[in-house]
Amino acid sequence: MSAINADPAELQKFSELAHRWWDPASEFKPLHDINPLRLGWINGKADLLDKTVLDVGCGGGILAESMASAGARVTGIDLSEKALSVARLHLFESGLSVDYRLISAEDLAEEMPAHFDVVTCMEMLEHVPDPASTIAACARLVKPGGHVFFSTLNRNLKAYVQAIIGAEYVLNMLPRGTHEYAKFIKPSELSRHCRNAGLDTHELIGLSYNPLSRVYSLGRDTDVNYLLHTRRA
């Protein structure tokens, strides 16, 4: 078993909120709002039907369940027992099938190398001590030619103002302290980590929020939130 690539304070923070994961009016409202966009983009690139899919850092299972509903055979992994308990409990309500496991991406990569058609790692890299380690594990987990999807936050003044000052302190969209600016990752840095792990980058796309219309959209603006589609060579 490898050393756990996780920040205990981060795990504690999300564990304390775990019971609210499936409340669309809770602190997790942004995840509920952006999930149709994430799912549609991933499905458009990888066609999830009958695919073997891994969701790394699945939390309470919002994306994992939606990929299962699109016809994928989904495994979700996380290091928060409380979040996984909530995810498993919600399966009784949704009637979907997802295999949830308490294990790190690094350890699962040792156990199941080159096993998955698709790997997703969304809104997680900015919360771990060593994102390059997580990226390398995702690359080992996917089959040659398979798809790996990441999403995270850019590191610049605009991202700091919108994602921390705006979202956490002004609009109260997220609990204060959700994000730490120093852990934000520039697209060039993420792309470099991916190349080093043997992943070819295919598309970089931005995720934007309009505070007036309260609507999220995908587009060219990668200044704050962005998603990256890669494939294993």
Automatic annotation (TrEMBL):
Reactions mediated catalytically: a 3-demethylubiquinol + S-adenosyl-L-methionine = a ubiquinol + S-adenosyl-L-homocysteine + H(+); a 3-(all-trans-polyprenyl)benzene-1,2-diol + S-adenosyl-L-methionine = a 2-methoxy-6-(all-trans-polyprenyl)phenol + S-adenosyl-L-homocysteine + H(+)
Keywords, ordered alphabetically: Methyltransferase, S-adenosyl-L-methionine, Transferase, Ubiquinone, Ubiquinone biosynthesis
Known pathway: Cofactor biosynthesis; ubiquinone biosynthesis
InterPro entries, per database record: SAM-dependent_MTases_sf, UbiG_MeTrfase
Keyword Lyase applies: no
Top-level taxon of origin: Bacteria
The enzyme's E.C. designation: 2.1.1.222, 2.1.1.64
Gene3D superfamilies (alphabetical): Vaccinia Virus protein VP39
Amino-acid positions noted as binding S-adenosyl-L-methionine in the UniProt annotation, renumbered to this chain: R38, G57, D78, M122
GO BP terms: methylation
Pfam family, one: Methyltransf_23
Molecular function GO terms recorded: 2-polyprenyl-6-hydroxyphenol methylase activity; 3-demethylubiquinol 3-O-methyltransferase activity; polyprenyldihydroxybenzoate methyltransferase activity
Family of the protein in this entry: Belongs to the methyltransferase superfamily. UbiG/COQ3 family.
HAMAP family: UbiG (MF_00472)
Biological role stated in the UniProt entry: O-methyltransferase that catalyzes the 2 O-methylation steps in the ubiquinone biosynthetic pathway.
PANTHER family cross-referenced by the UniProt entry: METHYLTRANSFERASE (PTHR43464), UBIQUINONE BIOSYNTHESIS O-METHYLTRANSFERASE, MITOCHONDRIAL (PTHR43464:SF19)
NCBIfam families reported for this sequence: UbiG
Name of the featured protein: Ubiquinone biosynthesis O-methyltransferase
Species this protein is from: Thauera terpenica 58Eu
